[in-house]
Each structure stands twice: as structure tokens, then as C-alpha cells.
Amino acid sequence: MKHFLYFLLFAFATITLFTHCDNEEDFTTDSNAKLEFSLDTLRFDTVFTALGSATRSFKIYNRNDRPIRISRIYLESGNAARWELNVDGTPGNVQQDVEVLANDSIYLFAEVTIDPNQPLSVSPFVIEDRVVFETNGNTQQVNLEAWGQNANYFPSRFNKGVAVRLSCENGNVVWDDPKPYVLYGALFVDSCELVIPAGARIYVHGGVAQNELFGGIYNDGIIYVLPNGKISVRGTKDKPVIIQGDRLEEPFLDAEGQWNGIVISRGSRGNFIEYATVRNSRFGLFVDSTSDLTLRNAQIYNTASSGIIGFHSKISAENTLVYNNGSTSVLLVQGGDYDFTYCTLASYGTNASALSMSNFFCYDENCRVARTYRLNARFVNSIIFGSQNDEIELSDFTERKDPAQFNVQFQDCIVRVDGLLKNPSSQFKDFLENFCKPCINATRNDRLFLKPDENKFQLDSLSIADGKAKPVFSPRTITIDLEGKTRNATTPDVGAYERDR
Predict the structure, then answer these.
(1) Fold exhibited by the domain 152-434
(2) Three-state secondary structure call for residue 472
(3) Is 242 within 8 Å of 276 (Cβ atoms)?
(4) 422: Cβ–Cβ under 8 A, 6 or more apart, which residues?
(5) 363 Cβ partners below 8 Å, 6+ apart?
(6) How far apart (Å, rounded) are the C-alpha atoms in residues 84 and 201?
(7) What CATH number belongs to 36-147?
(8) Quick one: which of 295, 179, 188, 289 has its CA closest to 233?
(9) CA torsion, points 451, 453, 454, 456, in degrees to nearest 10?
(10) Is 137 helix (H, G, I), strand (E, B) or coil?
(11) 450 - beta bridge partners?
(12) pTM score, two decimals?
């Protein structure tokens, strides 16, 4: 009997050992054997108004005929403060060697804890993360989305990557709720005037999205004004309007390209922006063919490309500051009608000019296919300056054979040009004599701005812009600067800012 018991124990151990080895060998290592999930985004549909938490779950499927081992499951951000994971009953934000039987599934639970009373730098409007799965050399993910602040999520909190048309039968829609507006997706304004009153805060959520209407994968977050729509931003000196990205954590405050920008599409008329700041976008304002825009007391900065793009359009700007742009600060292409008065275009630290203008646009690399249109552009009492020797680029398709096609005037401006005057191939060697009169061609040694390296473009106490402008009475009288300060009645200063005297 004793020997028989030893035999049974030995047999059981042997069977267990071989079974274990068989199981190890049975796990698929095929890189084509991927996981499937019950959803691609786990959304927490609660807007938190007080400290609280919520738990949601999704299923992880193994559709294969052999068991699979997930090498690692973890949160992409590594931030355990907002999210807590539980995989099939095992808690932890990082888990290894998670097994799923053949043609079976397991649950993953995610809990988020949010205190909306914390500042936006800690509890932003949209809280995102990703659960990452590493399996057989593959990396897969499921998105996590929650909303950390009470706001107007427009068009909705489930609109990422979706285009929504705002229409009001040629009336208007006023965003006057005291809570901030968070634009989540792509907004198309059609047959409607979108009115943004003084003090409004618009936070645009960008990031990578996918929609076949936009050609697949693109950067989300855009305000697009269609031909029958228009936008009216009515800020005041004391209550300016801010339109920016929704990431307010310290590393993102000055980050460019967080959302797309504002597009005024071809034919849209009556667009108006006053006392407003547009920042942290790919581009600031794109004004398309035959559309028009009036800018007053505006600031456009921290863009990945140009601050203002005018494409065969009409733009009137006064007391406007454009700076810290990844490309040409103001780009005017294929002609149009432009009037910039008391503006400052500053381009520092980028290999692009502050201003570029042309009366044509090339549709192929060698410009064999081009469209032309006459250019009327006037710059009055403005500063076009930066860190390069040439901050103005001019291109005339007619090579100055038809002055009516390239009508450009600079009056009482401060500019920085060098190659434009000296290069043998330049068409504008007479720029200072015939296009810019009177103007000051400044150098890097001239005192101009207060602290341009800190983006302070008020005038230095010894600025060469002091008292060099002339009062403006047409097309309308301008008596104040960007900050609402009264300008000198007889000898105002050049640029967007009037210096304290």
C-alpha cells in the first residue's frame, strides 16, 4: 500500500509537470494573433461638478484557437493619480503576463477620480490616456476619455473627429454662457452668425483624429466658417476673448499646434474679431478667396505655421500683434486687398520672414500652373521686424511690368530688409525709395522692443519707433493702441503699442 501511494503521487506530479509544459507550449506566439476589444474608446460620460470617481469597463477578446499571453498592460502616461486599472480582478496600473484562454475574454476595469475644483492645470477639461497592450511583439491600445471640469462641451462631449454643422437659418448663435466653451471636434458655421461676446473663453481640443471626410488621419479642432456663415468676436479691453487649446498644464502653455485654427472660407463676408487672442494652433487665421475679415486689437501667437494667411482675400487689421510663429507671421498669397495699420509683426528665432506677399499662387513645384490676381496692400504705422536680415518678401508675377498688379505701399513703418535691396536678382532694389516712404530700415543694433526674447513687444524707452508715426483718420480714426492706451495726437508711436511718456 505504501509503495502504491508513492506511485500515485509520482504519477500525479508527472502528469502535472507535463500538463504545465504542454500549456506553456500551447500559448500562441504568432504576431498575427492580436487582441480584440469591445470598444476603441472608454468614455466616462459624467461631467464632474464635485470630487468624485466613476468606473467603466471593456472586454479583451482572444479570438484565437490557442491561449494567448499579454506580456504587458499599462497606462501610456504612467499617471496613477487619475486612473486605476483592474484586469480580471487583479488591481494595478502595470500588469505582466496576463493570460486569456482560447476563444475567451477577460474584463478590464478603469476608475477615474476627478476634483473639478482644482485648477485647470491639474484637472483639465478633457482628461485622456491610453491603456497599452503588448502581445507577441504587437502594441495595441484603448483610449480613455473623461471630463474634468463643468463646461459647455460643443458640439458634444462625444464629438472627437466628427464634423458638425452649426446653422440657425441666417440668424445668430451667441455663446454667452458664463461657463467656458470647449470645442470638441470640427465646427462648421453655415447660414449663421456665431457671436462670441466679451469675456468668453473658447478652449479647442485638438489631437490626432480620424475621419474620411478630412482625408483620413488629421489634427482635430477647427472652427470653419462656410460661405453663408460668419463669425463675430466682440471682446473688450477689460474682457478680451481668448481662443486657445485646452491643455493648460505648464508644459503646454506655450506649445504650438495644439489645434488647427480658424478658417474663413471663400465668399464669407462680414467677419469681425476685436480684442481677442488666438494662440497655440497650427495656424491662427486663414482667410480664403473673396472672403473678408476685420481685425482690431487682436493678438495671434504660438502657431506652428503662419499667424495670418490671406489667400486672394480682404483683410483689414489695426492694433494687431502677430508673433512667435513657426513660419511667416503674415502670409498674403495670390493677391487681394489688405490694410494693416498700427500693427506689429515680429519674427524671432525662426527661418521665415515676418511678412510675405505675392500676386500669384503656384499649383505645381515648378510653377508651370499658376493663378494670378492683383495685389493691393497698404501698411501704415506698422513694425515688420525680427531676427533675420530680411523680414519682408515680395513676389510679383509680372516682374513689375504691370504696376496695377502689384500695388504695395508702406507708410511711416519700421522694417528690416537687406537682400531685398542688394541681391542682383532682386526686383525691389528701390524698395525704400518707391514702396516704403518714409520708412526706417532698422538693424539688430537699434533699440526697438522692450524685451523681444521674452515676447514683450511694447516699446523700449529709447525705441526708434517713438513718435515716428502720423495720426490716422482714414478709413477710420484710430486714437488708442492695443492696450487701450491713448495715442499721441500729433506724433504717435509706430506699431501696436504706444509708449508711456
Answers:
(1) Pectate Lyase C-like (2.160.20)
(2) strand
(3) yes
(4) 429
(5) 369, 370, 371
(6) 32
(7) 2.60.40.10
(8) 295
(9) 40
(10) coil
(11) none
(12) 0.82
